[in-house]
Structures are given as structure tokens and as C-alpha cells.
Amino acid sequence: MKKMNLVLGALLVSGMVFAGGRANEQEIALAAQETETEDTGIRAEAPQESSAQTEGMTGAQTDSADPEKALEEQMKTIALEDAGVKEEEATGIRVKKDRDDGRTVYEVTVYVDAEEYSYEIDADTGDILESDYEVDKDYDREPDNPDYLTREEVTEIVLEKVEGATEMDVRVTYEVDDGHEKYEGSIFYDQTEYEFEVNAQNGDIIEWSEEKFD
Q1: Which side of the chain, N or C, has fewer Cβ within a 10 Å radius?
Q2: Lowest mean pLDDT, pick from 62-66, 77-81, 131-135, 153-157
């Protein structure tokens, strides 16, 4: 169509010149401008089609959203609102699906440093069935020896064993057991809980176990 418009424009200009040379430069320029405008109008339709295709893709992505993840996010929001904690203030959040008395529930734990907010929430209604609040007084304890590992260093060690997990999924505390200094804790990620003990002196993993929750 573009080629045809250009040809018609050229013939129009040629005809004007041939018909006695009466067409002046202004008329020739006007004819060329009209031809170019028609062609531009045709090309302007393409973005509209592209926009429709984009809307279709967006709809497909929405339809393929994971409903299980969406429900987990709802349970997390309920717990955060009740605790009065913003998500960016939390140092850890765990959302675990479980069964209790024949119904599906979510156990949600929100950590803010030493503080721990625990909830059991009905998956169907969003009602909070149980809640608890604790403060771990020993949370900030670390080895007196400056050469021993810090909590942050131990966190990096254990996260290397669970691909995809982040610091928000880890809970670590320092312990002294029969004179042995160690860090113990857990990682909860993708409905799987990993429990561990790590030598505070050299970073060796003393114990490691995992449990999958359906």
C-alpha cells in the first residue's frame, strides 16, 4: 500500500507538470505532502495492534499466578497487621501450612530481632485462632573470643546449603553446651525446615537435618 501511494503521488505530480506546466512549486509540494500523510496514517495503526497483544500477555500471566503463594501472602499480611509490624521491619518471616482438627491452617511467625510473634490462622476464613508473643533474652549473645565466628558469618555458611533461601529465612542463636561453643538454628524455605548446629570456632557444621511440610 505504501508503494502504491508513492506511485500515485508521483503520477499526480507528473500530470500536473505535463498539463501545460501550470502547476507551480506550491501545488507540487502540497501533493507530495498529502501522499506522505496518507502513508503515515497507515503506519500509525501498528502500535494499536501491539498494545492489544501486550494486554493479552498480561492476562495470561495473571491467570498463571500461583494461588498457593497468593494465600501465603494473605496469611503473612494478616499476621503483620495484627503484630503492628511492617514487612521491612521484620528480620524474619515464616509461613508454614499445616492441618489442625481437620482444617487447613497456616502457622505464621514474625521475627523482629529478639521479638517473636506467632500465629495460627484459619486458611479458609483468615481468622486468627491462636497468637503468642515472646522475647528471646539471649538472642544478642555472641562468643567473647573475637576470633570466633559471628552470627552473620554462620548465616552465610548455612545459606550456601539451601539454594534460593535468604537471611529472612534463617534464625540463628549462640549457645554454650558442656563447654562447647556453637550456633544453632533453622532455615525455613519452600515449606521445608532445615535445622543445624555450627561450631562457633571454625564454622564446621556439627548437625544438619531437614523436614518437608506439605
Answers
A1: C
A2: 62-66
